[in-house]
Amino acid sequence: MSETQAQTYANHARWDPAYHFFAGGVLLVNVLVHLFWVIRAPGFPTIWGLLVSAALVVVLLKLRTYPLRAQDRVIRLEERIRLNQLAGEPLRARLGELTVRQLVALRFASDDEVTALAQQAIDEKLSEADIKKRIKLWRPDTYRV
Fold it and tell me: Domain limits of the chain?
């Protein structure tokens, strides 16, 4: 997404071509090649190659999920602080009912609409996607990949 383009639900997902397509694609093809060789010539070396290639896919996935979980923790803290400052007492008492995924989605909402969306998220048990779809004025998050 271009840094000058306004962020919306339709364009907020970010892809890193080197990671998602090149590294992911190469490792996926590597698993398929090793699977082919296990079927064609089963034995310790080919099975070991398949296991190593599968382990590389797991490493690639973990390299993505661990930092995202750390980012989610920071986002959770930021949004709780923001909501504590913006929300009235009835909502403030219920902020603990928001899930991490709901808080992650609320980070895109402007200050003018975040409290209403938080209330709806709690009352209606909205999913992350549902919250994002209801945002009218997006607060862009251009740091997360």
Answer: 17-134
